[in-house]
Amino acid sequence: NTSSKTIVYKVSYDIKVDEYISLLSKTSLGERRHVNDIQCMNGVLKNSNLNLSAWIENNLVGVSRSVTDYYFCCYLSDLAVSEKFPKYGIGKKLIDLTAEQLQPNCTVLLLAAHQAIGYYPKIGFYQHSDAWVKKSS
Predict the structure, then answer these.
(1) DSSP-based helix, strand, coil % in the chain, nearest 5
(2) Is the N or C terminus of the chain more exposed, i.e. has fewer CB atoms within 10 Å?
(3) What angle do CA 122, 123, 125 make, to 5 degrees?
């Protein structure tokens, strides 16, 4: 119950890799990330240049992890909220705070997990038909 607990949001706070992995493991995103590869997870955190986090009683409960130039585009790579705290607006708040760090007219882009496709239109995103994806080999 978060009604009696304060959610603290932090911008560019140094999230420890074990906290990050623990959070991802409590979300559906953990299934799609290399949570057992510490080197990869360290690299993901180190090389993202805009990370926001949500905390309840010093426990990481949400992350918005992005790569951005701050002016043209911001790729929101991870939006993860602990499944212990659904429907408290943590994900939307993290996205709003991410957007506040950007210059006006900077576009926020993301790839939605299948189960989250219905979420993003509700918070102001629209689907773009001209996106392309290629994974490195």
Answers:
(1) 30, 25, 45
(2) C
(3) 95
66 beta partners? 50, 76
Res. 41 pLDDT band, cuts 50 70 90:
confident
Question: Confidence band (pLDDT; 50, 70, 90) for 132?
Answer: confident
Please tell me whether residue 56 adopts helix, strand or coil conformation: strand
Nearest 10 degrees: Cα torsion 17, 20, 25, 30? -100
Identify each DSSP E strand in the chain by its residue range.
7-11, 50-56, 59-68, 73-81, 107-109
Q: Which two tokens stand for residue 132?
A: 């392309």
Band (30; pLDDT cuts 50, 70, 90)? low
Assess contact for 66 and 50: CB atoms under 8 A. Answer: yes
- Map tokens 């926020």 to a residue: 108
Region of 58 (left: φ > 0; alpha: ψ -120 to 50; beta: rest) is: left
75, 44 in Cβ contact below 8 A?
A: no
95, two tokens: 């996205």
